[in-house]
Amino acid sequence: MVIWFALFFAISLMLMPLVRTxxxxxxPLRSAMAQTLYALASYSIITAAGLGWLWYFLRPFGKRPWQxxxxxxxxxRALRWGVGGYFAALPLVLLSSLASQALLKxxxxxxxxxxxxxxxxxxxxxxxxxxxxxxxAPFFEEILFRGFxxxxxxxxxxxxxxxGLTGVLFAIAHLNLADLLPLTVLGTVLSYIYWRSQxxxxxxxxxxxxxxxxxxxxxxxxxxxxxxx
Length: 229
Known about the structure:
- By secondary structure, this protein is mainly alpha-helical.
- It is 81% helix and 0% strand.
Protein backbone atom coordinates (compact mmCIF):
# COMPACT_ATOMS: atom_id res chain seq x y z
CA MET A 1 0.00 0.00 0.00
CA VAL A 2 2.91 2.34 0.70
CA ILE A 3 4.24 1.76 -2.81
CA TRP A 4 0.75 2.12 -4.28
CA PHE A 5 0.22 5.45 -2.54
CA ALA A 6 3.64 6.57 -3.79
CA LEU A 7 2.61 5.62 -7.34
CA PHE A 8 -0.73 7.36 -6.88
CA PHE A 9 0.77 10.65 -5.72
CA ALA A 10 3.61 10.50 -8.26
CA ILE A 11 1.16 10.01 -11.14
CA SER A 12 -1.59 12.38 -10.01
CA LEU A 13 0.56 15.18 -8.57
CA MET A 14 3.73 14.99 -10.68
CA LEU A 15 3.50 12.99 -13.92
CA MET A 16 0.07 14.08 -15.16
CA PRO A 17 0.50 17.78 -14.29
CA LEU A 18 3.77 17.69 -16.23
CA VAL A 19 2.04 16.06 -19.19
CA ARG A 20 -0.78 18.59 -18.94
CA THR A 21 1.70 21.45 -18.97
CA UNK A 22 3.40 20.09 -22.08
CA UNK A 23 0.09 19.50 -23.86
CA UNK A 24 -1.49 22.80 -22.88
CA UNK A 25 1.33 24.74 -24.52
CA UNK A 26 -0.07 23.70 -27.86
CA UNK A 27 -3.66 22.87 -26.92
CA PRO A 28 -5.08 24.50 -23.77
CA LEU A 29 -7.39 22.21 -21.81
CA ARG A 30 -10.18 24.74 -21.47
CA SER A 31 -13.23 22.81 -22.57
CA ALA A 32 -15.13 20.48 -20.26
CA MET A 33 -14.53 17.55 -22.62
CA ALA A 34 -10.78 18.17 -22.73
CA GLN A 35 -10.57 18.30 -18.95
CA THR A 36 -12.69 15.16 -18.64
CA LEU A 37 -10.45 13.31 -21.10
CA TYR A 38 -7.44 14.44 -19.08
CA ALA A 39 -9.05 13.15 -15.86
CA LEU A 40 -9.96 9.88 -17.59
CA ALA A 41 -6.39 9.43 -18.83
CA SER A 42 -5.04 10.16 -15.34
CA TYR A 43 -7.35 7.64 -13.70
CA SER A 44 -6.68 5.02 -16.38
CA ILE A 45 -2.92 5.31 -15.80
CA ILE A 46 -3.40 5.12 -12.02
CA THR A 47 -5.61 2.04 -12.45
CA ALA A 48 -3.10 0.33 -14.75
CA ALA A 49 -0.24 1.14 -12.37
CA GLY A 50 -2.21 -0.12 -9.37
CA LEU A 51 -3.30 -3.39 -10.95
CA GLY A 52 0.18 -3.87 -12.39
CA TRP A 53 1.72 -3.45 -8.95
CA LEU A 54 -0.75 -5.92 -7.40
CA TRP A 55 0.07 -8.47 -10.09
CA TYR A 56 3.80 -7.98 -9.52
CA PHE A 57 3.44 -8.18 -5.75
CA LEU A 58 1.23 -11.30 -5.71
CA ARG A 59 3.16 -13.18 -8.39
CA PRO A 60 5.75 -14.69 -5.97
CA PHE A 61 2.85 -16.19 -3.98
CA GLY A 62 1.54 -17.98 -7.07
CA LYS A 63 -1.53 -15.77 -7.25
CA ARG A 64 -3.03 -13.30 -9.67
CA PRO A 65 -5.10 -10.34 -8.38
CA TRP A 66 -8.38 -12.00 -9.40
CA GLN A 67 -7.40 -15.17 -7.52
CA UNK A 68 -6.95 -13.11 -4.35
CA UNK A 69 -10.52 -11.80 -4.49
CA UNK A 70 -13.62 -13.53 -3.19
CA UNK A 71 -16.81 -14.04 -5.17
CA UNK A 72 -19.03 -16.36 -3.14
CA UNK A 73 -22.65 -16.72 -4.17
CA UNK A 74 -22.31 -15.13 -7.60
CA UNK A 75 -24.13 -12.10 -8.95
CA UNK A 76 -27.35 -12.66 -7.00
CA ARG A 77 -25.53 -12.48 -3.66
CA ALA A 78 -23.57 -9.45 -4.84
CA LEU A 79 -26.78 -7.60 -5.79
CA ARG A 80 -28.54 -8.40 -2.50
CA TRP A 81 -25.63 -7.26 -0.34
CA GLY A 82 -24.74 -4.32 -2.57
CA VAL A 83 -28.25 -2.84 -2.68
CA GLY A 84 -28.92 -3.62 0.97
CA GLY A 85 -25.58 -2.12 1.94
CA TYR A 86 -26.46 1.09 0.13
CA PHE A 87 -29.59 1.64 2.22
CA ALA A 88 -27.64 0.81 5.37
CA ALA A 89 -24.83 3.22 4.47
CA LEU A 90 -27.08 6.10 3.39
CA PRO A 91 -28.13 7.44 6.83
CA LEU A 92 -24.69 6.85 8.34
CA VAL A 93 -22.85 8.74 5.61
CA LEU A 94 -25.39 11.56 5.54
CA LEU A 95 -25.09 12.06 9.31
CA SER A 96 -21.30 12.03 9.13
CA SER A 97 -21.45 14.50 6.24
CA LEU A 98 -23.56 16.89 8.31
CA ALA A 99 -21.13 16.53 11.21
CA SER A 100 -18.20 17.23 8.88
CA GLN A 101 -19.87 20.36 7.50
CA ALA A 102 -20.52 21.60 11.04
CA LEU A 103 -16.92 20.99 12.11
CA LEU A 104 -15.34 22.48 8.99
CA LYS A 105 -17.98 25.21 8.55
CA UNK A 106 -18.40 24.25 4.89
CA UNK A 107 -14.67 24.60 4.27
CA UNK A 108 -12.32 21.92 3.00
CA UNK A 109 -12.70 22.24 -0.73
CA UNK A 110 -14.48 20.34 -3.44
CA UNK A 111 -13.88 19.12 -6.96
CA UNK A 112 -13.54 22.08 -9.36
CA UNK A 113 -13.63 19.75 -12.37
CA UNK A 114 -17.17 18.68 -11.52
CA UNK A 115 -18.30 22.29 -11.30
CA UNK A 116 -16.84 23.10 -14.72
CA UNK A 117 -18.38 20.03 -16.34
CA UNK A 118 -21.81 20.47 -14.75
CA UNK A 119 -21.95 24.09 -15.81
CA UNK A 120 -21.01 23.18 -19.38
CA UNK A 121 -24.25 21.20 -19.95
CA UNK A 122 -22.26 18.95 -22.31
CA UNK A 123 -24.06 15.60 -22.21
CA UNK A 124 -21.36 13.50 -23.95
CA UNK A 125 -18.98 14.81 -21.30
CA UNK A 126 -21.48 13.84 -18.58
CA UNK A 127 -21.62 10.30 -19.99
CA UNK A 128 -17.83 9.97 -20.12
CA UNK A 129 -17.43 11.27 -16.58
CA UNK A 130 -20.17 8.92 -15.37
CA UNK A 131 -18.29 5.93 -16.79
CA UNK A 132 -15.22 6.97 -14.84
CA UNK A 133 -17.06 7.73 -11.61
CA UNK A 134 -19.63 4.93 -11.51
CA UNK A 135 -17.85 2.07 -13.29
CA UNK A 136 -14.08 2.48 -13.34
CA ALA A 137 -13.67 3.88 -9.82
CA PRO A 138 -15.75 1.18 -8.01
CA PHE A 139 -14.03 -1.60 -9.95
CA PHE A 140 -10.46 -0.53 -9.24
CA GLU A 141 -10.90 0.95 -5.77
CA GLU A 142 -12.74 -2.09 -4.42
CA ILE A 143 -10.07 -4.43 -5.74
CA LEU A 144 -7.41 -2.32 -4.07
CA PHE A 145 -8.99 -1.30 -0.76
CA ARG A 146 -11.33 -4.18 0.03
CA GLY A 147 -10.05 -7.09 -2.04
CA PHE A 148 -6.36 -6.51 -1.29
CA UNK A 149 -5.71 -4.13 1.61
CA UNK A 150 -8.61 -5.06 3.90
CA UNK A 151 -8.04 -8.78 3.42
CA UNK A 152 -4.35 -8.30 4.17
CA UNK A 153 -4.66 -6.29 7.40
CA UNK A 154 -7.60 -8.43 8.56
CA UNK A 155 -5.07 -11.19 9.19
CA UNK A 156 -3.10 -9.03 11.64
CA UNK A 157 -5.61 -6.63 13.23
CA UNK A 158 -8.98 -6.96 14.99
CA UNK A 159 -11.84 -6.92 12.51
CA UNK A 160 -13.19 -3.49 13.49
CA UNK A 161 -9.72 -1.93 13.39
CA UNK A 162 -9.05 -3.40 9.95
CA UNK A 163 -12.36 -2.00 8.67
CA GLY A 164 -11.73 1.44 10.17
CA LEU A 165 -8.16 1.64 8.89
CA THR A 166 -9.29 0.66 5.40
CA GLY A 167 -11.98 3.33 5.56
CA VAL A 168 -9.46 6.01 6.58
CA LEU A 169 -7.05 5.16 3.76
CA PHE A 170 -9.96 5.03 1.31
CA ALA A 171 -10.95 8.57 2.36
CA ILE A 172 -7.39 9.93 2.26
CA ALA A 173 -6.94 8.64 -1.30
CA HIS A 174 -9.75 10.97 -2.45
CA LEU A 175 -7.70 14.05 -1.43
CA ASN A 176 -10.69 16.02 -0.18
CA LEU A 177 -10.74 17.26 3.42
CA ALA A 178 -14.44 18.10 3.31
CA ASP A 179 -15.31 14.45 2.54
CA LEU A 180 -12.75 12.84 4.86
CA LEU A 181 -15.23 11.84 7.57
CA PRO A 182 -18.15 10.69 5.35
CA LEU A 183 -15.80 8.77 3.05
CA THR A 184 -14.22 7.09 6.07
CA VAL A 185 -17.69 5.96 7.14
CA LEU A 186 -18.54 4.81 3.62
CA GLY A 187 -15.24 2.96 3.30
CA THR A 188 -15.84 1.21 6.63
CA VAL A 189 -19.33 0.12 5.53
CA LEU A 190 -17.91 -1.15 2.24
CA SER A 191 -15.41 -3.27 4.17
CA TYR A 192 -18.20 -4.64 6.35
CA ILE A 193 -20.33 -5.54 3.34
CA TYR A 194 -17.38 -7.27 1.70
CA TRP A 195 -16.60 -9.20 4.90
CA ARG A 196 -20.19 -10.32 5.45
CA SER A 197 -20.95 -11.19 1.84
CA GLN A 198 -17.50 -12.61 0.97
CA UNK A 199 -18.21 -11.20 -2.47
CA UNK A 200 -16.14 -8.37 -3.96
CA UNK A 201 -18.99 -7.71 -6.38
CA UNK A 202 -21.21 -6.59 -3.48
CA UNK A 203 -18.75 -3.84 -2.55
CA UNK A 204 -18.41 -2.82 -6.20
CA UNK A 205 -22.18 -2.59 -6.64
CA UNK A 206 -22.64 -0.57 -3.44
CA UNK A 207 -19.80 1.75 -4.47
CA UNK A 208 -21.25 2.14 -7.96
CA UNK A 209 -24.75 2.92 -6.66
CA UNK A 210 -23.32 5.47 -4.24
CA UNK A 211 -21.24 7.23 -6.88
CA UNK A 212 -24.15 7.15 -9.33
CA UNK A 213 -26.48 8.73 -6.79
CA UNK A 214 -23.95 11.43 -5.92
CA UNK A 215 -23.26 12.18 -9.59
CA UNK A 216 -26.92 12.35 -10.59
CA UNK A 217 -27.68 14.45 -7.52
CA UNK A 218 -25.06 17.00 -8.55
CA UNK A 219 -26.43 16.94 -12.09
CA UNK A 220 -29.99 17.64 -10.88
CA UNK A 221 -28.85 20.37 -8.52
CA UNK A 222 -26.92 21.99 -11.35
CA UNK A 223 -30.00 21.93 -13.57
CA UNK A 224 -32.17 23.27 -10.79
CA UNK A 225 -29.79 26.14 -10.17
CA UNK A 226 -29.90 27.16 -13.82
CA UNK A 227 -33.68 27.01 -13.75
CA UNK A 228 -33.77 29.29 -10.73
CA UNK A 229 -34.71 26.65 -8.10
